[in-house]
Design brief:
This protein has 309 residues and is mainly alpha-helical. 47% of the residues lie in helices and 5% in strands. It is built from 13 helices and four strands. The chain has helices at 2-7, 78-97, 122-144, 149-169, 173-183, 201-206, 209-216, 221-230, 241-255, 261-264, 272-279, 283-286, 295-304, and strands at 27-28, 42-47, 52-57, 65-66. The protein has a two-stranded parallel sheet. The protein has a two-stranded antiparallel sheet with strand order 2-3. A hairpin with a 4-residue loop joins strand 2 (42-47) and strand 3. Helix 2 (78-97) packs antiparallel against helix 3 (122-144), helix 2 (78-97) runs parallel beside helix 4 and helix 8 (221-230) runs parallel beside helix 9. The longest helix is centred in the middle third of the chain and has 23 residues, at 122-144. 49% of the residues are buried.
Length: 309
Amino acid sequence: SSGINAEWPLRPGGKGLPVNRTLQPLLAIPTTAGTGSETTGVAVFDYEPLKAKTGIANRAIRPTLGFVDPDNLVSMPARVTAYSGFDVLCHAIESYTAIPYKERGPAPSNPSMRPAYQGSNPLSDIWSRHACHITAKYFRRAVKDPEDYEAREQMHLASSMAGVGFGNAGVHLCHGLSYSISGLNRSYKSTDYPEDKLIPHGLSVCITAPSVFAATADSDLDRHAEIAEILGGKPCRKEDAGAVLADVLRDYLHDLGVPDGLNALGYTDEDIPALVQGALPQKRVLAISPISTEAEPLAEIYANSMKNY
């Protein structure tokens, strides 16, 4: 209804007010290994006036029960498996590298206005780190062999684990920058998806990942180096963590057939101002970025993501 549409969604598009009523039980049955939505209190939708995504983020909409059954994944085509898997990977890395929960602020005056995303914290770290371990072992297998039931099963588990991690810690720049990438799409159509014009969510998220984590590495070199090694990178000097993690992620993107940067999706440097303007309102996720989210650093990440290989 128009009342709900105005009250609950976050800006842009709504007031971001707390959900102050009892909702019906929600049973969630995921059919991809990606969103982790069976574990989170977040629902995202397209806000067409701004050609961007917004959503409702409140514990009241966290599912009562989730049915995580890999039998629901057996018909996923390769691109859906790949892009939903990259969503898992970015959920895990972003939540693990988010601003620490003790540094998030300012604190709201009313506890009911406390955001769903709290920043990296000891409990979320456990889930996010383990999701990276599972993804490193099974992601490529799940994409390359649709008959590999074990790989699909494990990626489904990784999706839920990453969901618990980011559902409390949050995601930051890969997701914050993704909404205008998908919303401003002019003509790109992905294989294995029925829509005539669509940049799948996981693609819009992972396309900037190498540049994002190269940029965020200095905020916590140890964590970035750890994730790079978990994902298959060689042990490196701490000061090289950002470059090494970026290269590891490029290897995943290239190996799993992701288009070569924003240029391949139809964007050029001339589109960067519009992409930045679409990203800046995403305060829900930008608030826990470990680096500045002013227009200039966001524009630099978009520019560095025009080509990845």
